[in-house]
Design goal:
single chain; 179 residues; alpha+beta; Aminopeptidase; five-stranded antiparallel β-sheet; three-stranded antiparallel β-sheet; 4 helices; 29% strand
């Protein structure tokens, strides 16, 4: 059994392992999973992303966490919080995000996991504000943002997506720690 940093009812959250890299590469290679991203990342790009998350975890105590289903220990993707530093009027910020294997969609895992990550961010790390960003056309992610209590702050043109007309207009949601 894995050593989890924290758990929700059905999910375990942990730092990344080398053995996650090929599994995350498979998730990232699914065109439906990556529908609202500019391109499907290579395995090398996936590995680099995981290495960045490990570094963020060692520096900050958080990242987009590797997520397993507790019932069987199966790795299903990531849910968590990570630093965003692209050029905008609201960065640097801490962003909440998720990416799960398509076979796990429609079961409430993203919402359940994101709620638990907010609890961790606010109660255990002491963060004051979390943001979330997605292209305006990504209704599924925007729905999760609403379900976890986030409020829409604005729409904006993402500077890193300027070459992708269908993706460049994004929504920004946020939630504050009111404790």
């Amino acid at each position: 059994m894995a050593d989890y940093l924290f758990k929700s009812k059905r999910l375990g959250f942990r730092n990344w392992k080398e053995s996650d890299k090929p599994k995350m590469g498979m998730i990232n290679s699914d065109p439906k999973v990556m529908e609202y991203f500019p391109k499907i990342p290579t395995q090398q790009e996936t590995n680099q992303h995981i290495d960045r998350m490990r570094t963020q975890f060692s520096e900050n105590g958080y990242c987009y966490f590797a997520v397993d289903k507790l019932e069987n220990g199966e790795f299903i993707g990531f849910i968590g919080i990570a630093e965003q530093t692209f050029e905008s009027d609201f960065t640097p910020c801490v962003d909440i995000g998720w990416r799960l294997a398509r076979t796990e969609w429609g079961q409430g895992f993203a919402t359940e996991g994101a709620k638990r990550c907010l609890e961790y961010a606010f109660n255990e790390i002491g963060l004051r504000n979390i943001k979330s960003i997605c292209p305006e056309i990504n209704d599924k992610s925007e729905s999760v943002m609403k379900k976890i209590g986030m409020k829409k702050t604005k729409s904006f043109y993402h500077p890193l997506l300027s070459e992708y007309k269908e993706l460049q207009k994004c929504v920004l949601y946020e939630i504050n720690n009111n404790i």
